[in-house]
Amino acid sequence: NAKDSGKNKFKFYCSNLNDKIQEEFILENNLRYALDKNEFFINYQPIFDVNTEKIVGMEALLRWKHIKLGIIPPSKFIPIAESSGLITKIGNWVLKNACIHAKKFHDLGIDVFISVNVSVNQLKEGNFARSILKIIKETGIDPKYLDLEITESISMENIDYIRDVLNKIKDLKVNISMDDFGTGYSSLAQLKNLCISKLKIDSSFIKDIYIDSNSTAIVSAIIAMAKNLNIEVIAEGVETKDQFEFLKEHGCEMVQGYLFSPPVDENSIRKLIENQY
Ligand code: C2E
Ligand code: MG
Ligand code: MG
Ligand code: MG
């Protein structure tokens, strides 16, 4: 009997695994046509200067709305886009459209930077720097307003190759931000090595300010360290007034989070920015 139930458990586990594989299979097949079917759109989350509380930048966050499957979160489809190789094309689409969007503000004399997430697979693609140059030319954006967000895990593998690509990007006058800082393995030396101009403290640490004394210490240490390295700091996932006050007190330059605004569509961010002027 015990054997039987063991068998059943195994079966159950198996079918769960199948479900997951099947879901990924379905998503991957649909992801293939998502660009052509215009199923992607971008939301923008404003990034605020801590002292003036004005919008100084915005992060482009990709959204996928499938006609039958509905809205699929990036945490689900980005990994699939990466493993299938589709991320290169999709990533270029995001970059181009985010730059077009930001350029409209610059044409009005509004200086907001645009920050775009980039996967390691895009960097590895070979002619990444060339595709960035192409986008700069096509959209007419001044590259000083463009930030590319890379994640910390990137910096460990193929470090020499990655550094080469990032140097080429820097030569174009585009900025590099370290996203999700604190969750990976990068060292101080690496931040310097990779010419990082901004770092984004991961929301998991911000959430625990005032809850876990370790997080409190980590956040203030990251800010102090970044200051010494001449790297600007953005706190991600700021949800409460207390968190904001703590960050302000410790000299964090910029904040992003639900306390100020969630990611919103193109029209809404335009209104938010225009209302400041
Ligand atoms: P991320 O780059 O760390 O982006 C920040 C995430 O935090 C976003 O989730 C945003 O909606 C969420 N967020 C913002 N403020 C708050 C807050 O106050 N509280 C909480 N709990 N969350 C907040 P989202 O949009 O679901 O994106 C998830 C991840 O997907 C992103 O994390 C990024 O790594 C990836 N992603 C999104 N768009 C792209 C893209 O175009 N390319 C690539 N390669 N990855 C992308
Ligand atoms: Mg990001
Ligand atoms: Mg990211
Ligand atoms: Mg992040």
From TrEMBL:
It comes from the Bacteria. Residues 24-277 form the EAL domain. This is PAS domain S-box-containing protein/diguanylate cyclase (GGDEF) domain-containing protein. It comes from Tepidibacter thalassicus DSM 15285. The lineage of its organism: Bacteria, Bacillati, Bacillota, Clostridia, Peptostreptococcales.
